[in-house]
């Protein structure tokens, strides 16, 4: 089999598992955005703790987003996925405008300091093809936590 020089970068990207993000047509996702994470009980300090009751809100004006499928926690330090906060199939209707959940951060992940929530949504005929994320927020580690069991 003979490859042209133009097909080599494509073959390398496919072999490396590279994908474009997000999968959905940008026009389908336009107008959908997530706002800052909020405490469910109303205004509180700007920091959060594991097990806080929180709400993530979004707007979906002019987008084709129909459902919210997954909410994940990421480290703002290195953009690594840390922990799934919420998952649903077929998902929560985007018309709800918000999703309350309990912020769950395993003890050994509480020391990163700054985090963000990424919310994955779906458009008609697609699954989790759009995402948006909250601004970075701070998390206070459990003051009674025994971090000696954690590495690094």
From TrEMBL:
Signal sequence segment: 1-20
Organism this protein belongs to: Basidiobolus meristosporus CBS 931.73
Keywords: Signal
Protein's name according to its UniProt entry: Fibronectin type-III domain-containing protein
Superkingdom: Eukaryota
